[in-house]
Write a structure and sequence with these properties.
The chain is about 35% helix and about 15% strand. It has 23 helices and 20 strands. It has a six-stranded parallel sheet with strand order 3-2-4-5-7-6, with helices on both faces. α1 packs across α2, α11 runs parallel beside α14 and α12 crosses α15. The radius of gyration is 25 Å and the shape is globular. About 55% of the residues are buried.
Length: about 575
């Protein structure tokens, strides 16, 4: 029996066990929305902007392990998702994004709300296609879900012309697909793995670098077994945070641009760097000529294209992190690393990761209180100084439960991602750590959080500036704070080095903003108020809570490595 494309669309979602779809209406998807209206098994979430929509789908996908599903209309609806698609691409988040499109007969005619969204997103999706034949619709949707969640996960875009949605055709939805040219690696080259392990065993200063691939592959337990069996210390990337418990004796900390001093020194001094699930981007390597200069490098990654792209490695291994570690654990034996660990601990004692405690409330104090108030749960962050402080000081976020924008660094990500995570995990506490700049980029999603009953706790760090750029201006640009002061008005004096008493008031008042939406608002200015505010926020189950932490604009994220410099050249004070 033949059915319309819109009915096959709904059947496909059901067959793929989709329980939630993040959708925003428009003329070219009204038929699909009408079909969704007739069923009760799939929950439809209506965000207030398509960028918020796709970040919600990311948060949902990262926190549940499911594919995030989006539906937007053509033209601006589609283009508003591009940032989120790029974010999901860099951070390996499985999404299937359906975009409406004008009828096939109008494509190429500059029709109303027509854009070549496939062309625009080809470089930031695993697969992007316009359906041009109703007979191919079921196969293409099946391919999309398969591609999104296999190999290195990522976003897929399906562009659906309006006439494809209404045309009749075969009702069958395939059980499986065989895609020519797409064969994700599902094994590990044992010979290469043995070679890598032999190299590790011969090392006097071995070091494991764990990236986001550990969390994506749910390989944290296998990694823990491996480091405990071998006694090899481990550092993580920002996206690898949570792969190893923060207080584990073999865990050194994050490495990279804002990494722990001991972690960066360990990378610089190791003789074998055993890296798993990382792309070696510039925030980790700094000056490539000086990255791990004394080390032989092993690189295990599921993505062939990532190996030796940025850093030429000695032993390349294409494999899922969990699969490789499972095999490595069959051979793992203790190594003599006591002297090496003692050297690393001396570095940590020389320059511990610690903020001063004699100048009022600090970001470190806030992170420590979040750990106490929320020892479990899901944490999302926006992008900026608060994000780096979270990666440095937050200990409670476990594997797959720390959700941040790493590769693209997308301001505006944190709050909608938290809403998406809460929708996917309604019984879990969800904390969003954000800044006053990033929060304002998608603050309209407070309406979505209220409408969907998503009582996330928003820890908003307000330093009245776009802090990360201000930090660079302070350190490298003579304190010329151009375009970073969020209190600045047109009648402010030029060349201001503020803040000063004469500065205009901050806009908006976040507590009044919360009240306007029916949410809760708390302002914290003293250390003694931090924990009581977090406990109060936990008690509000009817709506989100904004806790606005007023922090000094002079607080810096340290250590810091200036872009392009070796990671061993850290600014410490």
């Amino acid at each position: 029996m033949d059915i319309t494309g819109r009915k096959l669309f709904l059947k496909a979602l059901s067959e793929e066990n989709v329980d939630t779809i993040f959708a925003y209406p428009g003329g070219m998807v009204t038929d699909l929305l009408d079909e969704l209206y007739k069923q009760e098994d799939i929950r439809l979430i209506l965000p207030r902007h398509e960028q918020g929509l796709i970040h919600m789908a990311e948060g949902y996908a990262k926190s549940t392990g499911k594919v995030g599903v989006c539906l937007v209309t053509s033209g601006p609806g589609a283009t508003n998702t591009i940032t989120g698609l790029a974010d999901a691409h860099y951070d390996s988040i499985p999404l299937v994004c359906f975009t409406g499109q004008v009828p096939l007969s109008l494509i190429g005619n500059d029709a109303f709300q027509e854009v070549d969204i496939v062309g625009m997103t080809r470089g930031i999706t695993k697969y992007s296609v316009t359906v041009r034949d109703r007979k191919e619709l079921g196969k293409i949707i099946k391919m999309a879900f398969h591609i999104a969640c296999t190999g290195r996960p990522g976003p897929v875009l399906i562009d659906l012309p309006k006439d494809i949605q209404t045309q009749s055709g075969d009702s069958q939805y395939p059980d499986s697909v065989n895609i020519r040219g797409y064969k994700p690696n599902e094994s590990v080259h044992v010979g290469q793995l043995k070679k890598a392990y032999k190299l590790l065993k011969s090392a006097k200063k071995p070091l494991i670098l764990a990236g986001g691939g550990i969390n994506i592959g749910k390989a944290g337990n296998e990694l823990l077994k491996f480091i405990e069996a071998t006694k090899v210390p481990v550092v993580t990337t920002v996206m690898g945070k949570g792969a190893v418990c923060s207080d584990h004796p073999y865990y050194i900390g994050n490495s990279g641009m804002h990494g722990r001093y001991a972690a960066n020194m360990a990378v610089a001094a190791c003789d074998v760097l055993f890296s798993i699930g990382t792309r070696f981007n510039d925030r980790i390597t700094g000056d490539l000529n000086e990255f791990a200069p004394n080390a032989k490098i092993v690189h295990i990654d599921i993505d062939t294209a990532s190996i030796s792209r940025n850093v030429v490695v000695d032993v390349p291994i294409v494999s899922d992190a969990g699969l490789a570690l499972e095999k490595l654990n069959e051979w793992a034996e203790p190594q003599e690393t006591a002297e090496w660990l003692a050297e690393i601990r001396r570095w940590d004692q020389e320059n511990p990761l610690e903020m001063r405690r004699d100048r009022g409330m600090t970001p470190q104090m806030i992170m420590e209180a979040i750990d106490r108030a929320f020892p479990s749960g899901i944490v999302t962050t926006d992008v900026g100084q608060h994000q780096m402080w979270a990666t440095q000081y937050l200990k409670s976020a476990g594997s797959g439960r720390f959700i941040t924008s790493g590769g693209l660094g997308t301001m505006g990500f944190g709050f909608p991602a938290a809403v998406g995570a809460k929708i996917g995990n309604p019984m879990e506490p969800v904390v969003c750590i954000t800044g006053d700049g990033g929060f304002q980029m998608n603050m309209q999603e407070m309406a979505t959080a209220i409408a969907e009953g998503a009582p996330v706790v928003i820890c908003l760090f307000n330093n009245q500036y776009l802090g990360m750029v201000r930090q660079m201006q302070q350190l490298f640009y003579g304190k010329r704070y151009e375009a970073t002061c969020l209190r600045r008005r047109k009648d402010c004096p030029p060349n201001c080095k503020g803040p000063q008493e004469a500065c205009p008031p901050y806009v908006p008042d976040f507590l009044q903003f919360a009240k306007a939406y029916g949410a809760h608002g708390i302002r914290v200015t003293e250390e003694t108020e931090i924990l009581p505010a977090l406990e109060e926020a936990k008690s509000y189950m009817d709506a989100p809570t904004i806790i606005e932490f007023i922090i000094s604009s002079d607080e810096l994220v340290l250590p810091m490595v200036k872009g392009g410099n070796p990671m061993s050249e850290m600014i410490l004070k």
